[in-house]
Amino acid sequence: MYAIIKIRGSINTAPKVKTTFDLLNLTRSNHLSIWPEDSSRLKMLKKVEGYATFGVINDDVLKELLEKKGNFIEGSDAKKAFAALKEGKTPKEAGIKNCFRMNPPRKGYERKGVKKPYTLGGALGFRGEKINDLILKMM
């Protein structure tokens, strides 16, 4: 599963980028959403990589995220939602609202700030497994 975190605001951005953020349920900075890995999501992530960071979330961090920040729909809990997500269901089918309100990361983002890509020492773009460290800093 991909974890996507919106880092920068959407003032003065292209309308296609704003629409993509709406489709990903990311309305404000420091919001996180989780999505299954598929080609359509990857195209959406390429479109917003100048304003967000994303990577592959592991099971331990996903469990902790659901326990601490999960916003559940009636009759669901973290264990049921985690099992449903591992089966391949979407977050809505798993019984959670797919927008997690995160805190800003403790000790800040990477040293070159939020306007540079992760590969150059910044915070934007694809992180791979390193997204788990950022999520733990934001909880």
Poorly predicted sequence stretches spanning 5 or more consecutive residues: none
What do the pLDDT scores average to? Answer: 90
Q: So what's the CATH class?
A: Alpha Beta
* Radius of gyration based on Cα positions: 14 Å
CATH architecture: 2-Layer Sandwich
- Superfamily (CATH H level) name: Ribosomal protein L30/L7
Q: Level of helix content?
A: 25-40%
Report how far apart the termini are: 19 Å
How large is the share of residues in beta strands?
15-25%
| Helix count from the secondary structure assignment | 6
Total beta strands: 5
* Broad structural category: alpha+beta
Main sheet properties: 5 strands, mixed
Count structural domains: 1
* CATH fold-level topology: Ribosomal Protein L30, Chain: A
How do the SSEs run, as a string of H and E? EHEHEHHHEEH
Spatial shape: globular
Q: What features would you describe in this structure?
A:
The model has no long low-confidence stretch (mean pLDDT 90). This protein starts with a strand and ends with a helix. It is of the alpha+beta class. A five-stranded mixed sheet has the order 4-2-1-3-5, with helices on one face. The protein is 37% helix and 15% strand. The chain contains six helices and five strands. The protein has a single domain, classed as Ribosomal protein L30/L7 (Ribosomal Protein L30, Chain: A). Helix 3 runs antiparallel to helix 4.
Question: What is the compact description of this entry?
Answer:
The protein has 139 residues and is of the alpha+beta class. The chain is built from 6 helices and 5 strands, in the order βαβαβαααββα. The chain has one domain: Ribosomal Protein L30, Chain: A, CATH 3.30.1390.20.
